[in-house]
Design goal:
- By secondary structure, the protein is an alpha/beta fold.
- It has a domain at about 80-160: Dna Ligase, domain 1 (2-Layer Sandwich).
- The chain has 14 helices and 16 strands.
- The protein has helices spanning about 45-65, 100-110, 160-170, 180-190, 195-200, 230-240, 245-255, 265-270, 275-280, 285-310, 335-340, 350-355, 365-385, 390-405, and strands spanning about 1-5, 10-20, 25-35, 40, 40-45, 70-75, 80-90, 120-130, 135, 145-160, 175-180, 200-205, 210-215, 220-225, 320-325, 345.
- The protein has a five-stranded mixed beta sheet. A five-stranded mixed beta sheet has the order 14-13-12-15-16, with helices on both faces.
- The longest helix has 23 residues, at about 285-310.
- The relative contact order is 0.16.
- It binds adenosine-5'-triphosphate (ATP) and magnesium ion.
Length: about 400
């Protein structure tokens, strides 16, 4: 059994899943707790977050009919930075056939490079493997050579953030089994290798933050986290139209982008249109709503555009954009992005999610499900790595667990 926790700006999502020998995960429990204790990924009200975590855990455990195992916790990309290093391992044994343990040795050597002070490695992406100086495609395990080199990108997070997170989860009685970068876990689940080769963008449009991950030529090109999300739409509407935040949230969820809505003139002749009734109830003009909403929605997409760079500037992004997060459910948001970016935006549910329990069949749960799936794959990898020395991933998890406890 594996468990994952996604602490978002609007909600905490907990997933309990069964892990199978081939690395797949079957979700058996989902729980959500709502809170307002997070701002730009930082915990501002630990008690509120801890309460939401407890609520989500109880719901997930009830659905799974099992106690939650130690969980992997997602951290937002906003805290992460990365560095690239090369590590090598000499293969001296007779036959010189590469084993998984040799890859781990090379990875360990790369990780020994200077880690920025006050930060810890939380994730890694292998960019390239070289055998006797020759770049090889795919896994080197089973090939023959005397010197293995790996180019790795390490993702680091500040110790202070890990400690704060650990404290809050301790308050909620959650046992932590490691941390993972939310958007990278989501990218692993949602983006196919062929899309990464073609160039693809993952956008997680949440309530408070928008994560962007760009892959070009099969490799991670950009990881960014914008401090904007659907909450900005709600706040703008509330302040601009003089309505409550709850009313503004209802408009965002039900009307969304007015590019897909009828004009004021068309609406006024329709007697029983739900849109008309909703706006009339709040004494809001469609034009006013549209002006406020579109200004912010367009800004969000322009910010995304500025982070992914122009098409063709450094490799194309022909696989387009895959949109997850609750923002993918805002009507017309994907269509607007597609129009502004000039790229296809696929806001459909990732295939894996379609077989999930109804409670998490939503792009808003993509990060939580991805974290659980990632954990299941790591567990299987750990079991496959036999020698103690080669289990550096295990060591990584244990270290992270230690930092969270301290
Ligand atoms: N069914 C829905 N229809 C329309 N919009 C929705 C729906 N469900 C969620 N949303 C929008 O998505 C937002 C929540 O998105 P999400 O759950 O991805 O955010 P989060 O993970 O809590 O926050 P973040 O990732 O920014 O820290 C809501 O505030 C709402 O605006
Ligand atoms: Mg989120």
């Amino acid at each position: 059994m594996v468990a994952a926790l996604d602490i978002g700006t609007s909600k905490v999502a907990v997933i309990i899943a069964e892990a199978y020998a081939f690395g797949a995960a079957k979700v058996i429990g989902v729980g959500t707790g709502f809170h307002r204790g997070l701002h730009r990924g930082e915990i501002t009200d630990a008690e509120a977050v801890a309460k939401a975590v407890m609520e989500a855990v109880i719901k997930a455990e009830r659905m799974a009919e099992a106690a939650m195992p130690p969980a992997v916790v997602g951290i937002p990309g906003s805290f992460c930075s990365s560095f690239t290093a090369r590590g090598s391992a000499a293969i001296k044994r007779p036959g010189h056939r590469i084993q998984a343990a040799d890859v781990e040795r090379a990875l360990d050597a790369a990780a020994a490079a200077a880690i920025p002070p006050g930060r810890r490695i939380v994730d890694r992406l292998i960019h390239a493997c070289l055998l006797d100086g020759e770049r090889i495609k795919g896994s080197p395990v089973g090939l023959v050579g005397s010197r293995l080199e790996v180019d790795v990108q390490f993702i680091t997070a500040p110790l202070s953030v890990l400690a704060e997170l650990g404290k809050c989860l301790g308050q909620a009685g959650v046992q932590v089994d490691g941390v993972a970068v939310q958007c990278l876990a989501t990218a692993r689940m949602v983006l196919a290798p062929s899309q990464k080769e073609l160039g693809v963008v993952l956008v997680d449009l949440g309530a408070g933050q928008t994560d962007i991950v760009v892959f070009r030529y099969g490799q991670l090109d950009t990881m960014a986290c914008l401090p904007v999300g659907t909450d900005n739409l709600t706040r703008d509407l509330s302040a601009g139209l003089g309505i409550s935040t709850e009313q503004a949230e209802q408009l965002v969820r039900e009307l969304g982008c007015t590019v897909s809505l009828k004009s004021t003139a068309e609406l006024s002749v329709e007697e029983d249109s739900p849109t008309k009734a909703l706006l009339e109830n709040m004494q809001v003009e469609l034009q006013e709503y549209s002006d406020v909403f579109m200004a912010r929605a367009e800004e969000i997409w322009q910010l995304v555009q500025s982070h992914i760079g122009r098409e063709g500037s450094s490799g194309s992004l022909s696989a387009g954009v895959r949109l997850v997060g609750g923002g993918a459910l805002v009507p017309g948001m994907a269509a607007l992005g597609s129009e502004l970016l000039g790229m296809p935006i696929d806001a459909a549910l990732p295939e894996e999610l379609e077989s999930l329990p109804e409670a998490c069949q939503s792009p808003a749960y993509a990060a939580a499900v991805a974290l659980a799936e990632d954990r299941a794959k790591n567990l299987i990898e750990l079991q496959a790595v036999s020698t103690r020395k080669s289990a550096s991933l295990n060591v990584l998890w244990q270290k992270v667990r230690g930092w969270l406890k301290s």
